[in-house]
Amino acid sequence: MIAFLRGNLAGCEGDAVLLDVVGVGYRVFVTGRTLARLPAVGEKVELRTHMHMREDGISLYGFDTAQEADVFRLLLGVSGVGPKVALNILGFLEPERLLRALHDSDLTALTTVPGVGRKTAQRLCLELKDKIGALPNGDLLAPQGAQAEALQALVMLGYSRAEAERVLAQACDGAGKDITAEDLIRKGLQILAG
Fold it and tell me: CB-based contacts of 35: which residues, under 8 Å, 6+ apart?
């Protein structure tokens, strides 16, 4: 498997770039965001790559950041999402914004991507929400401080993690930054009690 390519940018063809790597030309499909960050033709370039094999050929997909490559591979794990759809999603949502949308089950943000309907967005959230933490820097989306303590307490009281996260999001809405874990637990339990 080809993990990365380092060479000179030889040109662009639509949604792909041509890389000259020691005299061998590689066509690598990239997002518009990656394309915009590339240097001028003839300059040195390094792209992390994902090689996708099908019965009709082999395609390379390239990324200028490790995070973008990791999120691309994560998207490929969802049934019905192939490399073209995953590349399209990353072309419209930056990796951080996409991870936040998946974490928060933000269907509105996900359906802004052309070709991603409500059912696909729901499938993405359902299948990936728990896998985000395994990514490098994925723990940045996890609750911090008092919210993390309150989440742990509610889970230990027998509530599901998803239910506790939902309730704590409501409890944190409008709360100041100096709210304590005890206050969050109290508010969360009041919301759960109805």
Answer: 12, 15, 17
Q: Which pLDDT score, from 0 to 100, does residue 181 have?
A: 84
pLDDT for position 139: 46
Query: Tell me, what amino acid is at 155?
Result: V
CA angle 165, 170, 173 (to 5 degrees): 120
Token readout for 155 is 């889970």
Strand spans (E) along 24-162: 24-29, 44-54, 57-63
Question: Residue 113 gets which letter from DSSP?
Answer: S
- The pTM (predicted TM-score) of the whole model is 0.69
Q: Which two tokens stand for residue 103?
A: 């974490």
Q: Could you give the domains of the chain?
A: 4-63 (2.40.50.140), 66-140 (1.10.150.20), 143-193 (1.10.8.10)
Distance, CA of 122 to CA of 100 (rounded, Å): 14
Mean pLDDT in each 10-residue stretch from start to end of the chain (194 residues)?
93 94 96 91 95 93 92 92 94 90 88 92 88 59 68 83 78 72 87 83
Supply φ then ψ for residue 17, to 5 degrees: -115, 155
Computed on alpha carbons and rounded to an integer, the radius of gyration of the chain in Å comes to: 21
What is the residue whose two structure tokens read 């992390």? Answer: 48
For the chain, first and last CA: distance in Å?
Answer: 54
Query: What's the pLDDT score for residue 175?
Result: 64
